[in-house]
Structure formats: C-alpha cells, structure tokens
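User: I'm preparing a small set of examples for a lab meeting where we compare how different chains pack in three dimensions. I only have the primary sequence for this one, and I'd like the structure in token form so I can line it up with the others. Please keep the answer compact; I'll paste it straight into my notes.
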Amino acid sequence: MKNNHPGIFITFEGIEGCGKSTQALLLSNLLRDAGQEVLLTREPGGPVISEAIRGILLNPEYYEMLPETEMLLYMASRSQHTGQWILPALRDGKVVISDRYYDSTIAYQGAARDLDFCIIETITRFATYNTEPDLTFLIDIPVDVGLRRIQSRKLDRLELENAEFHNKVREQYLFIATKYSSRYVVINGDDIVDSIHQQIKKKTLEFIRREINY
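Assistant: Understood. Below is the structure token output for the 214-residue chain.
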C-alpha cells in the first residue's frame, strides 16, 4: 500500500558488520547526483534527542539495562526521529534513507531479547505514527563474517553480544524479509561493495520509476 506522502522511504537492515551503512551512503550519494533531495539518517539517532538516547542505548557500561528498558528507549528515539525528521522530509517529497528502522527492534528486541512481538507491534505503530518503509534492503551475511569484520573497532553494547544472539537476529531478519517480500530485497553481503551497490541501484531506480507511474 502506498504511503500518504509524496516522498520515498528506504531502509537498510542487517546484522552487525553487514555493510549496510556503507551502502546507505552510496545510495544517498547516487540519488543526490541524480538530482533527488535526500535525507540520510540512522537509528537509533537522527535528531539531537534521538542521538542522546543512542548514547545511552549503545554504551557498554550500561550492561544492566533490561530488555524492556532497551526496547522502550529505541521506541522513544524512533518517535522523535520519525516525527521531527522523517515525516516532514517525506511530506516535502524527499527520499529518506535510514540505516535501520523498526524492523531492527523486531529482530533485536523481539527475537534476540525474547520480548512479546504483539507488544512491540502495538508500540511501533504509536512510535512511528503508522509510518512504513516503501523499500527495505536486507544486507545478509553469516554471523561469523559480520563479527570478524567489526573486531578491529571499539564495540558497542549490542555488538558485544554473543554469536547466539546475533544468529537469532539474522534468522528473524530473514523471516521478516519473507513475510514482507513486497518491500524487501535481500542482498548477499559477502559480495564486493560495488557489486552490492549496483544491485541496490538497479532495484531502487526500478522502484522509483514505478512510483512515478503510480
């Protein structure tokens, strides 16, 4: 179903180390060069308030954070992000590209933290003002590959979780991609960066052309 706004909302999802942030940036640069107005953003994050919440969520010192607290903080960040940045940009006809959105909460807090999916769904609708992505790219890689890629950097609280946790996240992402296949495109993240970018470019331009002729 087409959202009630003139813009296009594209999200990138995947486990840690999958390369989605790189691909989101490459796509935003491509579309800007083609004359599109683009908002490139991330979750948790975006506006100042959401970035402040990000600092709490990803701080390894807060190891005692309960799953329920974690989920509600993500939702609070998302509500501010959506209301302050995403919806105004979409109403202005911009392309919004977000490095993660609510599917991350379903995968991380729902599957990996074992929180109630129905509760997450209800709060998600409230926190996002019923906003849904138009197109989602899942950059899929094996967990061992992703964790190996991030070994050289300082890890945040979520990245420090064990392989079992990240496997649950990956499995849930693949399930979501199957369930919502009309908006999901699954890309092999083991491929070279430019090859992945070309696949994303092709799918995005096809989608935009369809939207123009909607």
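A couple of notes for your slides: The chain has one domain: 8-212. The longest strand covers residues 8-13.

User: Perfect, thanks.
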